[in-house]
Amino acid sequence: MITFELDGTEVSVTDDSGSLLDALREQLGCRSPKDGCSPQGQCGCCTVLVDGAPRVSCVTPARRVAGRSVTTVDGLDPALRDRLVEAFVDNGASQCGFCTPGILVRLAALADRRGDPDETAVRSALLAHLCRCTGWHSIVEAACSALGSAPVPAPAPARDPLLAAWRAALEGPAFQSSGPPTVLGRGGFADDTAPPDALVAVPGSDGSPVVAPTLAEARARSAKVQGRNSTVALRHPLAVPEGEWALTLRTTWVEPAYLEPDASWCGPGGRPASALANGGAFGGKRRSAVGPLARRLADEHGRAVRVLFSREHAVRHGPKRPPIAAGVRADGSGVLRVARTEQTFGLDVFRARVAAVAPGLVVEPVDVAGPPVSSDLRGAGWVEATVLLAVLGARAEGRGGPDTPIEVTGPSGGRARARVAADGAVRVEVFAGEILDAVTLRSYCLGAVHQALGWVWSEGIAVDEAGEVHDLTIRSFGILAARDTPSVEVAMQASDKWPVNGSDAVFAATAAAAWLAGGLGQDWPTQRGRRSPPSARSAP
What we know:
Elements: E1 2-6, E2 9-13, H1 20-27, E3 47-50, E4 53-56, E5 69-71, H2 78-91, H3 100-114, H4 119-125, H5 137-146, H6 161-171, H7 180-183, E6 199-203, E7 209-212, H8 215-222, E8 247-250, E9 263-266, H9 290-301, E10 305-308, H10 311-317, E11 324-328, E12 334-340, E13 344-345, H11 347-357, E14 361-367, E15 373-374, H12 382-396, E16 406-409, E17 415-420, E18 426-431, H13 438-457, E19 488-492, H14 503-517
Parallel strand pairs: 1-5, 6-10, 12-14, 13-15, 18-19
Antiparallel strand pairs: 1-2, 3-4, 3-5, 6-7, 8-11, 9-10, 11-12, 16-17, 17-18
Helix pairs in contact: 2-5, 6-13, 11-12, 12-14, 13-14
């Protein structure tokens, strides 16, 4: 047995050679530390304090904390935790809430060590974490506000939770709650709500489920191979069509990179817990197999079963944004090639979206070996076509280079105008009908900017010619870290029109503006391999 203090109370766990995270979640039922990388020590979602110092619990052996003090977000000083939570709510610094418990723990340690940390210190501390939803700015603002390194803002006006949830559902698009419970990681994630006596199922080496009484036993039986950072170069699987083109573009495999791995549970004859929980996963979990598998296994075993995908399994088998290769003439006509793999979802939808915004572009599917691709992912099809036509239009008008405004209208009618400066700084205007909740809309727009910049500048995963995915760690996806994210200004234009999605238009407009500002390199990501994107040279 291993005995230690957890949030002020002495506890004991069996020494099964497992990690501290497994001891907390699996033996003690402590759900605030999250398992985001299963376990790679790279996402920061499982961060706790060990004798006051932040530790990534998924790679900390449980036996190392014997006789020591472990503090989760639940055991932080209540006054400091409440300040942080209030600031996160007021700034929209938490959307799904999966990453925030670990971030709060890190910030609490920073406050203890640095007193009133400045923005640079906050961004450096956040390098140990990943957030896919918020784009970092709201998190940095919340941290600086709560920790005293920024002027204390005036009290925020009362917000209507219903209006905030409505705006979140428009932008997600999925139900998403906000408020203190979400910031503390209590958004109702599937694996957090599973019965403690449920069996555990994980994918085996051949893809079939391995079921065992505990997660540790299931993983041991599955012969799980830990993912590593790959040295394989990114590859663009499609060639640009032959022809005389005014503009060409090639993209590669892009991982949606949601932080909560696919998870569900179900009792016999019951309804499976949703893998989406408190967020939409950018479309990546729409067709996740975990729910149906949990139902089938529960019926077979006659008791509740948890199904958990590892990060490696989600990357190997989860849907990717379809790679494209396009050539466009000055009149907007041309060819847009799209990768079609053995598992392709929604190619007809992809084609229809392109036709709706760029009728002169002929969509040409090309069979390639690779992971599944899906039109479910954020704006797949219409965003690529819109970016091409928007940039083409700007060049036709004699506009180009940094700080060129690009305006885009999304399928819902939401509009956005974006410009990207030479140092990477972004200015965005968004027109999304009635704002409903300004904090929520701004948060989603900041996240859209961050995702668009990553798509153009740095994101991609290595897939070899046989279709095998090599980048299996969450840090290898190329997501922009807090320190490398440029300054972003978001102006929301009020309207009495019916509210519509605005952040998808921001995503498209920012991608086009960033590509134009960077010189229109044919292959995305344009800056992969550089030490840092332009933003890092002018920290906001």
